[in-house]
Amino acid sequence: MAGDDALPEIRPLSGSVRLRRALQELPRDGAEQRAIEAGEIDAVIDYRGANVIMFPMARRALRAAASRASAARRKAALETPLANAVLAALPRDEYLHLLPALEFVTLEFGTVLHEAGAPIPYVYFPLDCVVCLLTTTDPERMVETGMVGYEGIVGVSLGLGVDVASVRAVVQTAGSAMRMSAARFGRDFRRSPCLQHELYRCASAKLAQARQTAACIASHHFEQRLACWLLMASDRSRSEDLFLTHEYLATILNVRRVSVTMACTSLRSRELITYVRGTIRILDRAGLEAVSCACYRSVGFPRAVA
After folding, report:
1. pLDDT average, residue stretch 281-297
2. Which domains can be identified in the chain, with CATH numbers?
3. CA-CA distance, 125 to 85, in Å (whole number)?
């Protein structure tokens, strides 16, 4: 190389003296130098010293890609209200008023959104994730009493003037959601009759679901309950594949693991589902509906549940 002017910019933490000397020792018109000048090489790595020189063209490309990704996320946010039934029900101007306060988040399986007895920090509008609502039955056991997907809101009690959670909200199916701080939600809720209407629908549906769940546990065989639960989870995740272990199902449905295994084996023998390595796939939805109890048809998938 001719000299320092021909070298890429080297920042203190991105290169080393030895690596710089190696670049200077390259043949003047060699293939390596031509490739660097043509922008065909993005970086040079010094594996021994764990240093990297990022060439200017590559840095500009990364900045441009980051800018495009930011614009794409913004565009996606503008189009996501249809992915959540509550946001979709709001007039366009109401949604645009909420949009600056809505944060797009990715939620992993097992993430706790709020704990029972603790303040609710955020309201969540699920897009393609599913959230399980758990109620404590004794110090070491929690049972599912509700399920929320893209049809509803997590944190609905904030709109009823209660900022402390009565249930534990845990991500059951990983995915994305829009969330808003509790303080901002409270302000917007008070000024928006449309948002109030949607939240009251959520609260009503939540109460109906909790009542039906209690009746279901007391009245129906576990195989019927499991079929109903699988259909509800599939509806809310908008997928026939459910990533759930028998251990997890036994815990949240308050039964022994062997009961889950026996029920799944029975459903699989009739070719209604398959299961392998923590994945349950619904093969015959109509058949599974025929097996499930009437609870699925009663409150299986209301438009808004929280």
Report:
1. 90
2. 4-54 (no CATH), 74-299 (2.60.120.10)
3. 9
